[in-house]
Amino acid sequence: MKTVWDTIFLFFKVLAEPFVLCVLIMIITVIFNKKKKKRAVTISSIVLVLVIVGIGNGFLGKITANYLQKEYKNRTNSNPDIPAVIVVLGGGITDFNGIESPHITSYSRLVATTRLYNEVRKRQQSCTILVSGKGNSTITSEAVLFRKALMAMGIPDSDIIEEDRSENTYQNAKYSSAILQKQKPSHVYLVTSGFHLKRALLLFETFGITGVPYPSDYINTRLTVFPNSYNFAFTSFMLKEIVGIAQVHFYNSLGLNKSEKQVR
């Protein structure tokens, strides 16, 4: 049963790619045209235009960005509670000519983590950073790369813990929660991109960890007269997150999120 639901949600995530969605609508329009169903051709053509305009001009992106990020927009302005463990989620690895480094989306997370850590340490209180992520590399994990980057920013190696098995947000939550439950910190700060926070928090709660959201960055689209690739790309990111959030809620209702092989 779980495999069936995995396939269904994967299908919706594929449809969250505007290019795929537009191609699918065009194929449907051609089929209707061959069958000489003029009314259906007109409707599908209108839908295609609405999709291109709604996504490419930034309208849908504005709505999804607001839904995903609005409640976290002032989180970085408050004073942190202590003692604390900061969990920072990886954002991927870039391999350029054999040189591996954190993906560009990861650097804002590293900066936000360092800022939060320094705020806690200013009060002369202990603070531990848990870096979570294996990433897509078979050589160096995200956790190792994050650790090196954080140390370069002045954070002591003794204050950094690695979780280097997780390959997705579900596993970030699963493996990190096992470490956190042993440490029993008073507060757990979850550092990741604003558009990713809602789903990440839900998954950590699934494993018994109530995280304090700490957004590292935000994304948004721009309202434009003509459709552009920027709006298409960022809207796609956010639509996939919305599908992922729906998947978490649905799987939690069925008890499927406790599965070892579940992928996010």
Structure description:
Residues about 260-264 have low confidence and may be disordered. With about 260 residues, the protein is an alpha/beta fold. The longest helix is centred in the last third of the chain and has 26 residues, at about 230-255. About 55% of the residues lie in helices and about 15% in strands. The protein has 2 domains: about 1-70 and about 220-260, no CATH class; about 75-215, Rossmann fold. Strand 2 (about 95) and strand 3 (about 100) form a beta hairpin. The relative contact order is 0.16. The strands form 2 sheets. A 5-stranded parallel β-sheet has the order 5-4-1-6-7, with helices on both faces. Helix 2 (about 20-35) runs antiparallel to helix 3, helix 4 (about 60-70) packs across helix 9 and helix 8 packs parallel to helix 9. The protein has helices at about 1-15, 20-35, 40-55, 60-70, 105-120, 140-150, 170-185, 195-205, 230-255, and strands spanning about 85-90, 95, 100, 125-130, 160-165, 185-190, 210-215. It contains 9 helices and 7 strands; from the N terminus they run ααααβββαβαβαβαβα. It is elongated, with a radius of gyration of 21 Å. It comes from Flavobacterium cerinum. This is YdcF family protein.
Describe the protein's topology.
Layout lengths: L1 H14 L2 H17 L3 H19 L2 H11 L14 E6 L3 E4 L2 E4 L1 H18 L5 E6 L9 H11 L7 E4 L5 H15 L3 E6 L1 H13 L5 E4 L13 H26 L10
Parallel strand pairs: 1-4, 1-6, 4-5, 6-7
Antiparallel strand pairs: 2-3
